[in-house]
């Protein structure tokens, strides 16, 4: 008996979402035993215990992470599903250039732990870069299957970062050509998935940095009183994303409802090297930039200009993200 077209499509899309089937995740194992974390370091939102990093946010090296590191609050294996869980509160110790707390992985591509974080050997480039031979790779791919299980219940709805979390990034040395967001207002059942491109404003134009939003599921920039975005994604609902930089092009693919008869797939492709994106005259492009992937829970609901409170975990002032698949591929 032949499969119906929709059923076949569902099977094909589901097969592309993840090479880690749900049953393959062991709730009794550390994250590094369920996932290949051999090219990642980790930040968690507490003060580092290493004497040389006193007063700085906790950084867990590639080696430490792969020795079975867990943190019972911020980075652990879900005891029921085996998913890799990242949690970040609204207010905690942060990295130097951010006011937002994070529990987040940072890709490190060099085999040598003595190589600096921002050395080209730990990062990748696009094909237009004039010094590609110095980099770990030209291009690379990050794929994930993820659910956002909680976002802060406090915040100012007029600020787009309230009630939101970044679940994946391409980061350059200063700016971000890609941030993947999930945002859900407290009075909505559905949240929205969207991605931002930040123009690469340099030098005297650095203050002209601008995030340009692209809707995926639901809509960015929701406000109280707006209609619930029913084409969006509920808390706890799985989606997948794939980011693949080939040549100078950033390819994006998002899938929701992969296990249903009507999977929804959205794709995007932009040249991140050429600049002047969508006519933005301050965008110099990223041709000569270094890049690294990030994945986890980068809580955007800070207690500063975003207008979020910090009444604690019990009050709901945190974000929680679960990964069921995470794969980094630099060839």
UniProtKB/TrEMBL annotation:
Domain Alginate lyase: 35-330
InterPro entries, sorted: Alginate_lyase_2 (IPR014895), ConA-like_dom_sf (IPR013320)
Signal peptide range in chain numbering: 1-23
Gene Ontology molecular-function annotations: lyase activity
Pfam family, one: Alginate_lyase2
Keyword field: Lyase, Signal
Protein name in the entry: Alginate lyase
Protein species of origin: Vibrio comitans NBRC 102076
